[in-house]
Write a structure and sequence with these properties.
By secondary structure, the chain is mainly alpha-helical. The chain has 7 helices and 2 strands; from the N terminus they run αββαααααα. α2 (about 45-70) crosses α3.
Length: about 250
């Protein structure tokens, strides 16, 4: 005899939304494959959080580097740092809002808001104190000072939710298969490398073609020069920066 299970009932099982503790998967005739039940209600350890941060930061780096390879046919090491990681993606990926995790729409908009604030603040800091521009959404629909835009915010929202509900549980299951000592060693090595990269990048930020060669005529201390790479003066800037950089 079957009974209707509430959300609270399902949470009591090891796997969500499994119908029994020992039923961790089922075969879908529609998809013609086995579907594994993964519960996104998890208590991640500090070590898992650290490893997830680097996994998502690396995925973000691959994403942005891949865009340049596809569009321009060249490899560009994106970001302010030199290692294969973009911290904004790492932080966005580990935003596990447990209080709202069962409210999917609220989680989506919270991720959109938080990532937008982080992206705007990062852009403002880099432009104000480093006098560099690593991205420019000028011309994009619903952009704010070229630092954030609606398209980017929505992408962060969908990617963040994918991280919370799908990717984080998936990688958590994979990481649990790795011996504790190996995970601990990976955490220590990655954190040390990241800290060294952060210290060096603070004094010598990653820059150059495809990284910081955006039109910078609106920066407070760089109104004259568009970029050191191009050496174009703002008085000569009569076309949008996208045309100048071609």
């Amino acid at each position: 005899m079957e009974r209707t299970l509430t959300l609270d009932d399902l949470r009591e099982f090891e796997q969500y939304p499994g119908l029994a503790v020992d039923r961790k998967a089922h075969f879908s005739r529609f998809a013609n494959k086995t579907i594994v039940h993964r519960d996104y209600h998890r208590n991640y350890t500090l070590m898992t959080y650290i490893l997830l941060f680097f996994i998502f930061a690396f995925i973000g780096w691959i994403w942005e580097v891949g865009i340049h390879i596809v569009e321009d046919g060249v490899f560009v090491n994106r970001g302010t740092m030199f290692g294969p990681w973009l911290p904004i993606y790492g932080f966005g990926g580990i935003i596990l809002l447990k209080r709202f995790i069962d409210h999917h729409v609220a989680t989506f908009f919270l991720v959109v808001g938080l990532c937008s604030v982080v992206e705007y603040a990062t852009s403002w800091y880099l432009e104000t104190f480093k006098h560099m521009k690593y991205w420019d959404y000028t011309g994009y629909f619903c952009n704010i000072n070229g630092r954030i835009c609606l398209e980017g915010a929505l992408i962060f929202g969908f990617a963040g939710c994918a991280g919370i509900y799908i990717m984080a549980p998936f990688f958590d299951d994979l990481l649990k298969k790795i011996p504790f000592k190996a995970r601990f060693a990976a955490c220590v090595i990655l954190v040390v490398l990241f800290c060294c990269d952060a210290v060096y990048s603070k004094a010598n930020p990653n820059q150059g073609k495809g990284i910081t060669d955006y039109a910078a005529y609106n920066l407070p201390f760089h109104r004259v020069m568009v970029s050191e790479e191009l050496g174009v003066r703002s008085e000569e800037l009569l076309l949008p920066h996208s045309d100048i950089l071609r």
